[in-house]
Amino acid sequence: MKKEIDPITTEIIQSSLQAACDEMFIAMRKTAMSSIIYEVLDFGTAITDSDGNIAASGAGIPAFIAMCDKAVQAVIKKYDNSDIKEGDVFATNDPYNGGVTHLNDVIVVMPIFSSGERIAWSANIAHWPDLGGMAPGGISADAKEIFQEGLQLPVIKMIEKGKPIQSVIDIITANSRIPQYTLGDMWAAIASIRVGEIRIKEIANKYGTETFKQSVQLFMDYGEQASLDSLKKLPKGTFYGEDLLDDGKKIQVKVTITDKEFLVDLRNNPKQDDGPNNASLDGTIVSAQMAFKSISTGDFVCNAGTFRPLKVIADEGSMFNPTRPAAQGIYYETDIRSYDLIWKAISGLNPEKSTAGSFASICGTFMGGQHPDTGATFIIIEPQVGGWGAYSKGDGCNANFSAFHGDTFNTPAEISEARHGVYVDQMRLNDEDGGEGKFRGGKGIIMDYRIRSKNAWVTVAYTRSKSLPWALQGGNEGAPNYIEHIKKDGTINKYSVITGLTLEPEDIIRIHTGSGGGFGKPEDRDSKLIEEDLLNEYITFEQAKKFYNYKK
């Protein structure tokens, strides 16, 4: 029999869950070995209920947080309740089985018990820098099947009743080119979820197990109601969007909105890619969740209840729902494509939130080699910042991460230079044409990595290099994403996709990220804004004349 719980208690418990997730996040950041984790914050933390439904989350990558529940649910599906014990830790990175993303993103989860009853789970997902595969760092644009991308962890138990299963840990480290980093990141993740276990037990002990469980469900119901209230305010009907991939293939979506449902129909899209440009159905759902949240509720509540009105359909065997053993190493570019596509379809539904297209690429940059001072193997993994689209009341944001990345940061030059075999010679705003309008798209960046070590390498897979960020209301499309390989003899080669390109000392990898699309006709831009752009060196005088007919 359920008892009445006052809303103050429910709110306190929910805030306590949020605080627990934040503490888990801090524990991971303070103890991880890899700069992709402790500097970029390429990870996420979450608490679920006993059935694996998201109850609260920490900072970090929004796309990651919504993947933790799917890992917990995979554990519950695979293991009998008698095999899930206090102190156990499970792990998965298999995108076909609770892992959602690609093999470098490992999710570790832990059941939480109170008075002998399982009441919740704590979860952590992070990008581990290397788990084998045909290319260092695990990412290869040449991969044809998932077996080439690294070690698969198909929902395994790695700690039982608090004791590590050493054979499992040995297998993980034996498949890494940098085992000391892998081991460090693994224990940091485990420390993080153990913090969550301690805090949830404290909450349950303080308020009682039944009160805790009921409060979690009540807040999920609140999340659902908030979404339904938002749906009622949106225009109803079916809205269509389409876009082109860089290879010329068309992708499309239909979004149907009713008072009760937000249906994302991604059927009739290209078949699964022969390479690694595929995203699991779970990953596609996460992309839709982010778009849904963006257009609907503006409050901080984001739990399993929030997404109950959302439905996603995608053909099995398509790039948005591939079948095993399709490679998924570059899933993130496909997920950002589906997010951007959905956003494009619904961009006019809420004028206050409608923006033109952004640079819309993770621009994942993977570099490595032997450190010239220590001889140790290093691997740089860094997403890049770029320009966001303009909107009806202002310019787009300069040098921001993609919508996937949320509360993340670029790696400071000092860290890159001290920990890795490179110099960072410059980082500035991109001055290329693109994104002009009454309100202009935000600027991307130009950044130079100068190589110090012999036989170094770089791997990238940037999208939006040919199919540019879309504009609104007569604005200009944004600028492309790509890199330049500037050899020490002055030769320059341009790439948007390349795997394991060999580099030599004094070579430069110059990163170009695009500007967002413009909003409104460029000739309608206020002269004061043009003068401010000139003063801030966002544009040149030649560009002011060319695009805005500016005359001084």
Summarize this entry quickly.
The protein is α+β, with helices and mostly antiparallel strands and 552 residues long. The protein has helices spanning 7-31, 35-38, 62-78, 166-174, 179-207, 209-233, 281-295, 331-345, 413-419, 527-535, 541-548, and strands at residues 43-49, 54-60, 89-92, 105-114, 117-127, 156-160, 163-164, 237-244, 250-257, 262-265, 310-313, 365-370, 377-382, 422-429, 445-451, 456-461, 482-486, 492-495, 497-503, 508-512. It is 30% helix and 22% strand.
List keywords for this structure.
single chain, 552 residues, alpha+beta, five-stranded antiparallel β-sheet, 11 helices, 22% strand
Protein described:
By secondary structure, this protein is α+β, with helices and mostly antiparallel strands. It has two domains: 7-223, no CATH class; 355-552, no CATH class. The chain is built from eleven helices and 20 strands. A seven-stranded antiparallel β-sheet has the order 2-1-5-4-3-6-7, sandwiched between helices. A five-stranded antiparallel β-sheet has the order 14-15-20-17-18, covered by helices on one side. Strands 8-9-10-11 form a four-stranded mixed β-sheet, with helices on one face. A hairpin with a 4-residue loop joins strand 1 and strand 2 (54-60). The longest helix is centred in the middle third of the chain and has 29 residues, at 179-207. The chain is globular and about 75 Å long. The N and C termini lie far apart (77 Å).
